[in-house]
Design goal:
Number of domains: 1
Mean pLDDT: 95
Oligomer: single chain
Largest sheet: 3 strands, mixed
Low-confidence stretches: none
Strand content: 15-25%
Strand order of the largest sheet: 1-2-3
Shape: elongated
Number of helices: 2
Structural class: alpha+beta
Radius of gyration: 15 Å
Order of helices and strands: EHEEHEEE
C-alpha cells in the first residue's frame, strides 16, 4: 500500500535505498500519510536481522522527521497545516500549496 503525495517520492526513494543496504531482505508492507499529516512506513520486523533493527528504526524515524517539513504536493519546504471544519484534517504543505482557510500549526 502506497498512499501519499508525490512530494514525498524522493523521501521514500532515499529511505528504501538506505534500508536495502542496511537490511537487504527488508519487506515494506505499506507507506502512507497518517491522519495528522505524518509519514508512516510499515515493514515486516521479521525481515530485519535483530542486530539491524535499531538502525532501521532510526532511519525510518529520520525519514518521518524530514517528511514533516516536506510539502506532500511538491517536495519543497513545508509545515503542518490544518483545517477543523467539519473535523480536523492535517497535511504538510508549502505556502504555494496550502488550501485557502487552512491554518499553520
Amino acid at each position: 500500500m502506497r498512499n501519499y503525495g508525490r512530494g514525498w517520492n524522493q523521501i521514500v526513494k532515499d529511505l528504501e535505498a538506505d534500508l536495502k543496504r542496511m537490511a537487504p531482505g527488508i519487506e515494506s508492507t505499506g507507506i502512507k500519510e497518517g491522519k495528522f499529516g505524518d509519514f508512516l512506513y510499515y515493514y515486516d520486523l521479521n525481515s530485519v536481522p535483530p542486530e539491524k533493527s535499531e538502525a532501521v528504526a532510526r532511519r525510518v524515524n529520520r525519514a518521518a522527521e524530514v517528511a514533516l517539513e516536506t510539502c506532500i504536493e511538491c517536495g519543497e519546504l513545508g509545515r503542518i497545516r490544518y483545517v477543523s471544519s467539519p473535523q480536523i484534517e492535517a497535511h504538510v504543505y508549502c505556502d504555494t500549496h496550502t488550501p485557502k482557510d487552512w491554518k499553520t500549526l
